[in-house]
Design goal:
By secondary structure, this protein is of the alpha+beta class. It is elongated, with a radius of gyration of 34 Å. The two termini are about 45 Å apart.
Length: about 575
């Protein structure tokens, strides 16, 4: 009997990240792009000492014009008011009162160029006039979109009146808009967020903490913002912070309430995605295994061997709904037998032999998210056996260099980690998530390949590299394969599966860690199995591959190739 076994690559669809630069630096998750230090430019104020005092008659004329202008302003005759104030200022140029009234009219008329010119003169006459500096900053910020110049004027105003929280908020907004001064914004927010009775500063502070992976502080900031927020953006941000930080207990009900209360937020899809991964769910999964047979007329016997998707811990409960052979436009329902390994043995009757034969297995899968997940089968892992996969390339000098590099990275947030093993696992998973850049490649590549192609890796390389790093340090680790439920997969055929890592933690057991998803979802998939992950098997647990085809033939020219696809749908 000739036997062919399918080695099906585990593919993964995730989100792209930026291109890598220096090879080793990309794995340093503790490094953050350093923001520029904001230093406000010194304002060049004009010399206004040349303004002479007007005669009494001229001053009275200016007063009359000023009063007419105020009356015109009150009657919404803004253009007329501007002209009257301009005449008053030209007659009495040294009068700060006339000039400040003129600024009000110019601001209402949106005459930005003249407004800035006159404001600068007012500041030259009265350098302590923080209100005029603030008005200039608002003009640059809101109308001219020149954020950095706006920041200089807001900073000037805030230095003159440090207790004015409006000035602080304006400065924070301008600096944030530049995208260059994150650290300065962060420090200002820590100083002023509690003093400004608005949700945005707390919200922005939460985002800054998230940038620094300080999830507890981010959650604290978003919680404060929620108390003031009637639009809902802080509620959705709170959900993301809790999810990214891995604080998942009880989060599903909070997410549901947020979706119901604020359904029109721009981040609603992200929140729905989080909810789908946390709530109990039931799906239909259809697996198609297709044989392309060359020389089918020479066959004498043909059958499938498939290890089906099965129950897994407290995470998934599986029921096989139907098993059918599809060929020649016909469907034949079959009742497979099980071998000693729990695999399905399906004999294909001669009447269904053809150049293209498909096996369709339909599953009902009930999923329940489990948090802080550990699986202990009571067996001490055999480290040598775990290392036997040649694709781990444990002798690769780059792997050794990377493992030692990760050892020396400083892990700031390590309060809940009690051993070197825990700390290395946390650092290695974060380093792999940051160091590799996602690109679907469709091939089951080795660790050496991944280390030489860090911009072309998918979930296979992410999980295999993390596993190899742990094994290199003597920490038992293994691969797990499955399927990741994504919105774009619902109701569509796909050949894309998923792969993650499980690490053995002494005294607790095996815990799942998904470095691929950590690259975008932070800690949500660290020690958690969520409702968008369907577990298939541990690929090295069995001597045989998951899907095998056995056949005998009269001639040696028979060739068989295998394609495997999945279709997921919501259970009805």
């Amino acid at each position: 009997m000739k036997k062919i076994e399918a080695v099906l690559p585990i593919l993964c669809l995730c989100m792209s990240t930026s291109c890598a630069a220096d090879w080793l630096d990309t794995f340093d998750f503790s490094s953050r792009n350093k923001s520029l230090e904001y230093r406000p430019a010194a304002l060049e104020l004009p010399d206004t000492s040349q303004f002479e005092e007007p005669s009494v008659d001229d001053y009275n004329t200016a007063v009359s014009l000023n009063n007419e202008a105020i009356e015109a302003m009150n009657s919404n005759r803004t253009k007329e008011a501007v002209q009257l104030f301009e005449r008053a200022v030209s007659i009495a140029p040294g009068s700060k009162g006339f000039r400040k009234n003129y600024l009000i009219a110019l601001n209402k008329a949106k005459n930005n160029k003249k407004l800035l010119e006159e404001s600068l003169i007012v500041l030259g006459m009265e350098p302590e006039d923080h209100k005029t500096a603030y008005l200039m900053g608002l003009t640059y910020l809101n109308d001219l979109k020149e954020n950095e110049i706006a920041a200089d004027y807001f900073s000037y105003a805030l230095n003159l009146s440090p207790e004015d929280n409006n000035y602080a908020l304006a400065l924070i907004t301008a600096l944030e808009n530049t995208g260059k001064y994150s650290d300065t914004v962060f420090e200002l927010l820590k100083q002023y967020a509690s003093k400004i009775n608005e949700p945005y500063p707390y919200y922005l502070l939460g985002l800054k903490y998230l940038e620094r992976d300080n999830y507890s502080k981010a959650i604290e900031s978003f919680s404060a913002s929620k108390k003031l927020d009637v639009k809902g953006y802080s509620y959705h941000a709170y959900v993301r912070a809790a999810f990214y930080g891995g604080n998942l207990e009880g989060l599903a009900s909070i997410v549901k309430d947020t979706i119901n209360k604020f359904p029109n937020d721009k981040n609603i899809n992200s929140t729905k995605r989080i909810y789908a991964s946390l709530k109990d769910s039931t799906f239909n999964l259809t697996e198609h295994i297709t044989l392309n047979v060359s020389g089918a007329s020479s066959l004498e016997e043909l059958n499938f061997t498939v290890r089906p998707v099965s129950d897994f811990q407290n995470h998934q409960k599986v029921e096989i709904i139907s098993t059918e052979i599809i060929s020649k436009g016909k469907r034949l329902s079959v009742s497979p037998s099980y071998d000693k390994d729990g695999a399905l043995d399906i004999s294909i009757p001669k009447s269904m032999w053809s150049p293209k034969i498909s096996l369709e297995i339909k599953y009902k899968i009930e999923l329940k998210a489990i948090y802080d997940a550990f699986f202990d089968d009571g067996v001490i892992p055999d480290l040598d056996k775990l290392k036997s996969d040649e694709k781990f390339d444990l002798d690769d000098s780059k792997l050794a260099l990377l493992a030692n590099f990760i050892d020396n990275i400083v892990l700031e947030d390590s309060d809940d980690l009690n051993s070197y093993q825990d700390i290395f696992i946390a650092k290695a998973s974060a380093a792999v998530a940051k160091g590799l850049n996602y690109l679907e490649n469709g091939v089951d590549n080795s660790v050496s390949w991944a280390l030489n192609n860090i911009d072309r890796c998918d979930c296979t390389e992410y999980s295999r590299l993390l596993t190899a790093l742990c094994l290199k340090k003597g920490i038992p680790a293994r691969l797990a394969t499955g399927f990741l439920i994504k919105n774009e997969f619902i109701g569509k055929e796909t050949s894309i599966g998923h792969e993650w890592c499980e690490v053995y933690i002494k005294g607790r057991g095996w815990t799942p860690i998904d470095a691929t998803l950590q690259s975008t979802m932070h800690r949500a998939y660290n020690k958690n199995l969520l409702n968008d992950q369907i577990f298939f098997e541990y690929p090295n647990q069995h001597e045989r591959t998951r899907i095998g085809v056995h056949y005998t033939a009269r001639n040696s020219d028979v060739a068989v190739s295998i394609e495997n696809t999945y279709k997921i749908s919501n259970y009805k």
